[in-house]
Amino acid sequence: MRVVLAGGGTAGHIEPALALADALRRLDPNIGITCLGTERGLETRLVPARGYELQLVPAVPLPRAITPQLLSVPGRLAGAINTAAGIMDRVQADVLVGFGGYVATPAYLAARRRGVPIVVHEANPRPGLANRLGARLTDHVFTGHQNTPLPRAEYVGIPLRREIVGLDRLSMGDKARSWFGLEADLPTLLVTGGSQGARSLNQAALAAAPALRRAGVQVLHVIGPKNTLEEEPPPGDPQYVVLQYVDRMDLAYAAADFALCRSGAMTCAELTAVGLPAAYIPLPHGNGEQRLNAEPVVRAGGGLMIDDADLTPEWIIQNVLPILSDPERVVTMSEAASRMGRKDADVTLARRVLQIAVEGRGR
Questions:
Q1: Does the annotation flag 218 for ligand binding?
Q2: Sheet of 140-143, strand order
Q3: Whole-number Å distance between alpha carbons of 316 and 156
Q4: Does 195 appear as a known binding residue?
Q5: Is the predicted pLDDT of residue 141 greater than 90, yes or no?
Q6: According to the annotation, is 290 in a ligand binding site?
C-alpha cells in the first residue's frame, strides 16, 4: 500500500498529516508513505525529523484577487501538477490525502489526472481555497470541525500525535514541572503563542508577572523562536520560566493548570484532547477562523475568550488569576474542555484512508 500525503506550509497542515502517517504505520508497518511539500514550508524540517520521505513540489500561491500575478498562475500550476503526478507515478500511489496549503492544489489535480483516489481533510471551520477545490473532486471529505461548510463532509476531528492524546496530565504533572524547573505544588500558567509566538500575549503576560507572583502563581512562558524579550522577569519565587521554544508540548500541557494562548485549530484540538482549560486570544487578522475554533470550547465551559485588542495585564489579573486561585473551578473547566476533545481522529481517518485505497485498487 502506498499513501501520498499533501499538506505543507504551517504546522496546522503538517502535524495532522504526520499524525495520520503515524497511525497508518501502526495499522500497517509495511505501508509506504510519501509526503509532498514545498521548499519554503516547515515541512522541510518537520517531515524528515519524524522519519518520513519528503518530495518537493513547486509552490504556487493562488492570489485571492485579480492581480497581474494571476496571469502567471496557469503556467506555474501546470509545472507543479506535472511534478506531483511524476512523484505519484514513481511511488505507485494508491491514495492521496490532502490537508490544504500550497502543495495540496497541484496534488489534488495530479491525483485526479492519474485516477488516484482523493481524500480531503480540512481542520478549520472555514476551508481554504485548496480544500474547497479538492472537495469538488472527491466524495471522501473529512473535517476537524463539526460545522465546516464542505459538501459530503464527515466530522472526525483533527489527527493528533500519540504523545498528546495519550497524555495523563494528572500522573505526569510533577515530572513535567520538574522538567521545566517549576515547583510541584503551585498553580501554573502556560503562556504560548504557538510555533511563531505572539507579541501581544508576551507583553501582557510579562507585565502581569509581578501580580501573578504575589498571588503564588508560577508561569511557563514560551515566547516563540523568532521573539526576544527586552527584559525578563527577575529571578524569584514563584518561578517565571521563559523559553523560546518547547519541543515537548506534552510536558508543557502536563505542567500547566491553565493556558493563555492563540486559538488555532491544532491548539484547540490539543488542549481539549488533554483537558487543559485556556484563555483563548484569536489572531486579530485573517478570516476569523480562530474565533470559530474556540467558540464551542468556551460555550461548553472549557475556556475564556478575549479579543487581542482587549488583552491587557489587568485582564489577566482580573480573569485568569481568580481561576488559578480556585482549584475546584480549574477542575470543572478541565472536565468541560475534555468533553470537547477528540482523541481517536488519527485512527479513524487512517482506517478510512486504507479502506478507500483498497476500494480504489478494486476498480
A1: no
A2: 53-56, 32-37, 2-7, 95-100, 118-122, 140-143, 153-155
A3: 34
A4: yes
A5: yes
A6: yes
- Joined grid coordinates for residue 25: 504505520
* Distance, CA of 128 to CA of 47 (rounded, Å): 22
Query: Under 8 Å CB-to-CB from 274, ≥6 apart: which residues?
Result: 164, 165, 167, 169, 250, 253, 254, 338, 341
Tell whether residue 213 is among the known ligand binding residues: no
Given phi > 0 = left and psi -120 to 50 = alpha, else beta, which region is 29?
Answer: alpha
Domain boundaries, the chain: 2-160+343-361, 163-339
- The arrangement of strands across the sheet holding 188-192 comes to 240-243, 218-222, 188-192, 258-261, 278-280, 303-305
Q: How far apart are CA 245 and CA 223, in angstroms?
A: 7
Residue 238 pLDDT level (bands cut at 50, 70, 90): very high
**What pLDDT was estimated at residue 70?**
47
Task: Check whether 11 is labelled as a binding-site residue.
Answer: yes
Q: Smallest Cα–Cα separation from 40: which of 78, 72, 13, 69?
A: 13
Secondary structure (3-state) at 220: strand
Per-residue pLDDT at 205 exceeds 90: yes
Nearest Cα to 6, choosing from 56, 45, 51? 56
Domains 2-160+343-361 and 163-339 belong to one CATH topology: yes
DSSP annotation of 70 reads G
Please give the CATH topology (third level) of the domain spanning 163-339.
Answer: Rossmann fold (3.40.50)
Q: Compute the distance between CA of residue 154 and CA of residue 148 in angstroms, rounded to an integer.
A: 9
Provide mean pLDDT across the span 222-244. 83
User: Is 17 annotated as a binding-site member?
Assistant: no
Q: Does the annotation flag 82 for ligand binding?
A: no
At the top level of CATH, the class of 2-160+343-361 is alpha beta
